[in-house]
Structure formats: structure tokens, C-alpha cells
Amino acid sequence: MTYCVALRLDAGLVFLSDSRTNAGVDHVGTARKMSVYEVPGERVMVLMSAGNLSIAQSVRQLVSTPGAGPNLWNARNMYEAAQVIGNAVRTVHAREGDTLERFGIDFNVSLLFGGQIGREPPRLFQIYSAGNFIESTNENTYFQIGEAKYGKPIIDRVINSHSSLDEGAKCALISMDSTLRSNVSVGLPLDLLQYETDALRTGHFVTIDESNEYFNMIRRSWGKQLKRVFEGIENPVWFDAENIEPNVLSLAEARNQSQPLRVVRPTDQATTRQDAASAPDDSQAN
Amino acid sequence: MTYCVALRLDAGLVFLSDSRTNAGVDHVGTARKMSVYEVPGERVMVLMSAGNLSIAQSVRQLVSTPGAGPNLWNARNMYEAAQVIGNAVRTVHAREGDTLERFGIDFNVSLLFGGQIGREPPRLFQIYSAGNFIESTNENTYFQIGEAKYGKPIIDRVINSHSSLDEGAKCALISMDSTLRSNVSVGLPLDLLQYETDALRTGHFVTIDESNEYFNMIRRSWGKQLKRVFEGIENPVWFDAENIEPNVLSLAEARNQSQPLRVVRPTDQATTRQDAASAPDDSQAN
To answer: Which chain B positions have a beta carbon within 8 Å of A217's beta carbon?
Structure first.
């Protein structure tokens, strides 16, 4: 599997991808999933992929060796460029889809594609297996592909479009750390790229491996501090005793209405067995 | 969808379920997903379900109205009781599977089942659509069903088998809060049940709705404190300047090897277009 996340902030774009690829658990490898299409001063575009690696690589190959017509290098805006990617997905589907289906393999690829062309503000798209795509809006400032769910809550809680690029990078790395811990199918090294609005050239980029000081600091301190916050939150107070006011989980007046769905033991013989070896001594209490 | 989580701690068992059920986005309802089978002093068992509600309800019906042979009320241990549930899943599959398949509906149900019978320690099982099941071990102290991924990282980080029942309840509620925030298909009210090892009767139980003081405190303060921890973590230092030692994301000596995968612009004509309306002024720089 894969985990890639891209943020579209006022300050620019942040892209982060892992590099784990596998076809079944016995065949785990490393493949970089982020590629950069750049004409400094004119356009910067970043493509990240998840799903079937052979499909993703074919899409990359197609958009990197354009024929006639619109392509990433002559697209007039990011919408046109996203169409180029979507059309490449459709071309690969036309070529490979039937054969893959005969082998029981889903045509499964998903792509994140963002960047800036000329004076148009930076834009970010998520492109699906059918070649259709959606665009990030101010209300929806990020997209994820692959193993997206583990790392979603932290982004939902701390990022909005006013966050800085460094905050975006920090949050993306925490989101990745949560995913790495909960899912073995996502792995180092990571590719992290920041693009600053209107720079029209690639900003900070780093490949992060086990020795990266900053990511190791995040891995150590995020978990530790999360644990400290967890310990700092009061345990529930189950009964609203007289002197305890806050944090009551179960109020006396509500407790009568708050009952589990109990299934009553039927009274017929089917529910008893003479040979119940481990039946406790006090079972006749019922 | 659904989110249910169960923890098997040395101190006992914690069960938490949401109550959102839906068949497509236009048909969202509420159904309780936790049921309790209890003979005080002898046995306590709790069943939670996710997946197709009609299948889950049929399974519940079957195990609640036992015929001859082993059932939840006469099972000698939790393994036998889990087999009763697994067999009920298989009975429903034999009855419904073909018809559902003809309507293109997967036979999809997953169950968490835990409790204690007699002197055997508490046990926890996850039961699959095929009626097979796995058991929680000391290394794997919890199971989740339904929308499990959003709420997994926090459990991985703070819970182990030595955690107290109240810590377990607190963590389960934080895990549920993260899931509720990231996924609209999970919803209140929640059912929370604690079972204390060797009590052989249901422990604390509460149904949590929007007015629950403790859960609201968690919702407010967890997000707020997470944000504070996030802000407290240093932003990355992109360049290892002389006086800045820690938190360097990109070391000078590594920077030369750390380059994005750049796709070079082909030199043929296909990549230029005369009518490029938004081509920036400095495009001839390349």
C-alpha cells in the first residue's frame, strides 16, 4: 500500500509520500511515488500515486513522453494539466483494463496532482481510476490517497488554509507517523516537498529515512506528548457523588434510562447442560 | 457504517459502540449494536456488530433463541460461546447468502464478542463473515470493527494490557471522537460497558448522547490539547545553519543526494503551444 497526502494552503502546497510498494505480503519493495514537473519561472507540478504500481508507472510514462496535443508542458492552467493526467489514466485503462480484469485485477489507481502555472493560484486535484477528478477548495484543504484513514484525524484537528507551509509539513509528518505505526504496508523513506505560492520553482525538498533528525524527533515526542495529554485528561467519574461535579459519565437520573440491551435467558431446557464442566459453583443461584 | 471497539485488559473488558446505521446516504437511522448476555455470578457476554444490519440482527435472533445443542447460556467456556456465534453466522449465510448475492449484496458482517464464563479469565474474539474467529492476546489487546482506522493510532499509542478499565474507557471514547470527526457515517448515541475481571456481572454501563458531560469534556479538551501539543513541536529547520543544531530536516551533506524525481521537459515541439494564453512573461527563460 501507500500513503500520500497533499495540502493546499494559502502559503502554498505541501506534498508527502511514502515509498512502500508490495504485491502481497511476500513481495515488499521500495518505489518513489512523487515526481516533479518543473519549468522554473513558468510552472511547477507534482504528481503522487497510489494503487496498482504498474498502472501508476504507465500513467507517469505517458505524461512524461507527450505526443501531439495538450500535455503537462504546454497546459495553460492546472485544470488542463489535470485533464492531461486524467486522459493518461483513460489511455492506460483502454490498453490494460480488459486484460487485467481477465486476471481478476481491479483497475485501481489514484493520484494527487498539484502545482502552479503562471499567475493562476496553486491548485490541487485528486484523480480517480476513471480519469475523473475533484479539486481542493478552501473548505477542503487537503487530499489523501492510499492508507488515508489513520492519518486523517490529526489533519482535521490542526490544519486550515491559513496554516503555514512548515506547519503543513509538520502535520503531514505526524499524520504519516500515525500511519506508519498502525500499518506495516506503509514505509520509509518519505519524500517531502514544499511549494511556496508564486515561487514558480520547487521549494524545499527532502527524502526522509531512518536517520532524519527532525522526523525522529517527531516520532519520539509526538507519541510521548500524546500520552501525557491522555494521562492529563481526567478518568470518568461513574457516579455523581455529592462533592464531585465535573466529568460525570453517568448521571443518577439518567442511569435508569441508560441500560444495556439485555438478552434474557430463555427458560426452557435448551439453555442448560448437565455436563457443563466449568460451570461455577454458584450457578444454581439462578 | 459503524465503529465498535473492545479492549481486553488485565483489569477486565471495555466495550464501546456507536449507533449509526445506514443503507445509502439517504437512509440513516439509529440501531444499538451492543447486546449483553448475562447470568449474574455465572457468565457475562457482550456482542457488538458491524456490517449488514439485517445479517447482524438475524445472528442476534438466532443466538438469543437457542434450540438444542450448545448455546450462549450453556457454553462451558468463551471459546465454545464464540463457536455458537460463528455457527449462527454460518446458519444465516446458508439461509440468506445466495439470495443476497443475486441482488449484488455482499454477505458482510463482523462481530466483537467478549466476556467471562466461570473461573476462566475474560476472553475477547473477533468473528468474521465466514464464521471463523480470532482471539485477542496479550500482544494484541484490542479489536475494532467497522470504521476502524481513524481511531486506531491513539489506541496503539496509549493502551497496553496493564491499563486500567477507566483508562480503557477514556481511550475508547477518544478513539470514537476521532472517528466521529473524520467520518459522518458514525454517530451518537454510544453504548459504553466496562466489565471487571471475575465480577461475573455487568459493570458500569452508560448510553452517551450529545448531553453527556464527560464525553463533551473529552471532545473539547482532546482536540484543544492536541492542537497545543502540535504547536509546541518545533517547525522543521530546513537548513543546518551554524548556530542551529536540533530539528534539522535537511542536512547540507545529504541535500545533494536528496533530490526529487524530476521529469525533464522533452525538447521536441510537442511541449510548446503558440496559443498558451496564460504563459508567463519569463517563459523564454527556458
So the answer is: 233-234, 246-247
| Residue B242 burial (CB count, 10 A) | 5
Selecting from A171, A191, A270 the residue whose C-beta is nearest the C-beta of B66 gives: A270
Rounded alpha-carbon distances, angstroms, from residue A30 to A17, A136, A186, A207: 12, 29, 10, 13
A98 phi/psi in degrees, rounded to 5: -60, -45
User: What is the distance, to the nearest Å, from the Cα of residue B284 to the centroid of all Cα atoms in its chain?
Assistant: 54
Cβ separation B170–A225 shorter than 8 A: no
Give the DSSP letter string of A94-105: HHHHHHHHHTT-
The span from the first CA to the last CA of chain A, in angstroms, equals 53
Q: With residue A207 as reference, give the H or E element that holds it.
A: strand A205-208
CB B145 within 8 A of CB B112: yes
pLDDT score at A266 = 75
Q: B286 and A149 in contact by Cβ < 8 A?
A: no
Q: Pick from A73, A221, A250: which is nearest to B206 by CB?
A: A250
Q: Do B279 and A76 touch (CB under 8 A)?
A: yes
Residue B253's SS3 state is helix
Domain B3-227: which topology?
Glutamine Phosphoribosylpyrophosphate, subunit 1, domain 1 (3.60.20)
Q: How close does chain B come to A198, measured CA to CA in Å?
A: 11
In percent, the amount of chain B with pLDDT more than 70 equals 83
How many other C-beta atoms lie within 10 A of the C-beta of residue B256?
A: 7
DSSP state of A236: P
pTM, entire model: 0.80
How many Å apart are CA A17 and CA A3, to the nearest integer?
A: 6
pLDDT at B256: 58
Closest residue in A to B17 (Cα) is A260
A93 phi and psi, to 5 degrees?
-65, -45
Cross-chain Cβ contact B213/A246 below 8 Å: yes
Max CA pair span of chain A: 86
Q: Where do the structural domains in chain A lie, given as residue ranges?
A: 3-227
Residue of B nearest to A35 (CA): B261
Helix-, strand-, coil-residue percentages of chain A, each rounded to 5 = 35, 25, 40
Q: B94 CA to chain A: closest CA distance, Å?
A: 23
Task: Tell me how far apart the alpha carbons of residues B24 and A187 are, in angstroms, rounded to a whole number.
Answer: 34
ipTM greater than cut 0.90: no
